[in-house]
């Protein structure tokens, strides 16, 4: 039992360091790291973690939930006909977790999901920088607890989560090439009649 305590303590420390991250830092070489401080390197790009995977409008939330949602936004990645996705959605709704939902329906969505999570399995749940693959009720509940979400709903009865949106934005259709009309030309003169009388002056 004593040998497990250092291991559990290290796990908690790793989880805390991930959850406390407020910035997603993209370095000039494309390396992505999470940190709780803005990067001093001007070449690095800092993006608030709350902007990853969509955002819930905090203005419609109780004041007790706003700081939690701002630091650890929840995003659920689903697809139609996915039973584990439906189970995960039900868990979030029953617990009163404000979340954004991203649908994976097209080939472009599937490719984006593979880039995001490393595979194409659904559902995927993100809580701030933490990513959970597959639906495991106990795991989801534990990470939501660690992020500070209440165990029972604090949302008003009138609250509705944002409607699901596609994971990727379809590219706009190309504009049709404008066909230039040919410029009108003067009608050709009729051919001369060889039998017409020749008049000389």
From TrEMBL:
- Every copy of the Glutaredoxin domain together lies at 74-128
* Keyword flag Metal-binding: no
Q: Where is this region: Disordered?
A: 154-201
For this UniProt record, give its keywords in alphabetical order, as a comma-separated list: Signal
Q: Which residue range or ranges hold the DUF4124 domain? A: 11-48
Q: Has keyword Signal?
A: yes
- Kindly name one Pfam family recorded for this protein: DUF4124
Give the compositionally biased regions (Pro residues). 163-175, 184-194
> Which top-rank group of organisms is this from?
Bacteria
Could you say which residues form the signal peptide? Answer: 1-21
Q: Please give the name of this protein.
A: Glutaredoxin family protein
């Amino acid at each position: 039992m004593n040998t497990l305590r250092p291991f559990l303590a290290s796990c908690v420390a790793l989880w805390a360091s991930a959850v406390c991250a407020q910035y997603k830092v993209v370095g000039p070489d494309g390396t992505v790291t999470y940190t709780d401080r803005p990067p001093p390197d001007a070449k690095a790009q800092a993006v608030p973690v709350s902007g990853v995977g969509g955002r819930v409008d905090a203005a419609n939330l109780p004041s007790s939930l706003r700081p939690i949602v701002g630091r650890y936004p929840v995003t659920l990645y689903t697809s139609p006909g996915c039973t584990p996705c439906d189970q995960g959605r039900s868990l979030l709704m029953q617990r009163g977790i404000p979340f954004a939902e991203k649908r994976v329906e097209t080939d472009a969505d599937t490719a984006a999901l593979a880039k995001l999570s490393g595979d194409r399995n659904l559902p995927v749940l993100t809580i701030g920088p933490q990513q959970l693959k597959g639906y495991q009720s106990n795991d989801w509940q534990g990470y939501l607890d660690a992020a500070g979400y209440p165990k029972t709903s604090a949302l008003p009865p009138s609250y509705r989560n944002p409607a699901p949106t596609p994971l990727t934005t379809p590219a706009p259709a190309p504009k049709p090439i404008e066909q230039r009309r040919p410029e009108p030309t003067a009608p050709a003169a009729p051919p001369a009649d060889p039998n017409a009388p020749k008049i000389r002056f």
